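Reviewer 2 asked us to include a model.

Predict the structure of this chain.
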Amino acid sequence: MKIITFVLLLLTFLFPVKAVIADPPPKFWIKNMEGKRFNSKKHKSAFVVSFFFVNCVPCIKEIPVLHKFMSTNYPDVPLLFIDPIKEDSKNDIKKFSRKLKVPLSYFYKDSFGSISKKFFKGKMAFPTIIGIRGNEYLFRFNGIDKTKLDKIKSLL
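Predicted model (structure tokens):
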């Protein structure tokens, strides 16, 4: 018994385990394109944020897929498509919504990029899909595929 304890202590000193403390998701509020406000601080259950811009080819392919997936599997989980690109106007986003046949109520304009800056340290990547519940990240993906959709199912 003493030998096992000694070996475990020795391994602990030789291979220390570092605690990984991730920053909690940032708090924010934003209004959708129809004027309805979303406040992450007051939202305790899960929600999904997807950062996009109107000329992003992967976004054009993935937004309808993500919308259908969430609407079918998690209709009560808020889904926010947030556009942080200054050049994209509200009119551009309205046209984008119609083109993709995704209701305008899911789209948000981060006019000054203040929300996206809280989520990206440095360069932004599109699309970025983030799942949040309370003070924890559930997932963060750049783009989606079948494997990532299955992972989202297991985490929401």
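Residues 139 and 152 are 7 Å apart (CA to CA). The chain has a mean pLDDT of 87. We have added this to the supplementary material.
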